[in-house]
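--- STAGE predict ---
source: upstream dedup step, 1 unique chain passed
mode: sequence only
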Amino acid sequence: MVCRVRAQGKGEPVIELTDVAYSYGDGELLGDMTLSLPTGSFYFLTGPSGAGKTTLLKLCYGELLPTAGHLRLFDQDVRSLDRDGIAEMRRRIGVVHQDCQFLDHLSIADNIALPLTVAGHSLAGEQQNLAELMNWVGLRDRADALPPELSGGERQRAALARAVIMSPDVILADEPTGNIDWEMSQRLLQLLVELNRMGKTVVIATHDMSLIRAAKTQVQSRVLRIAGRRIQQAGADL
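--- STAGE serialize ---
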């Protein structure tokens, strides 16, 4: 049975999956997924370990292509995009990875600025924006620190800053609070809520139900759950 999920009261879809499946080798990990995420929506993605949350996020930013079905990002079929088209599309999606990998020989400011460098932007003209971004995530005084010198919470905030430095339309966060304490989890959630209030689409993969409940007073969000290779909407608005 195909489960169809569509949020209400928001803008045009930025991510659309139609009958999407994804298989590793001979085994299907995800199947019959039909999902539409509109501009400005806020979603939590839940499910047991190994259910496919990270795989679904990778499909949503074009790191993986579906083995069946159709995937559209910003109204473009990902199969129709060449390498340059994929690269351009990915600039519109900021990803906070679960493992927060940085280049340890570069300062945290230079790590955050890496997407600008890759995109060919002049860093000289971006210093004010970079400083403002680091202040926003509370790392202004840590700009010259190396990644191994950061705490877990600082690394996660740096990862968020790096994900949004190109001003993406969509932010995907994979277990962003998995290795930090509750107080820092709340601080990171507040930053993601602020991004959503700016009109960004936010999707957070998490197993932390306390985090989802804490979002209730801050943002109108919905919960998607992956189980048995399928996705379903879990309950009403938080």
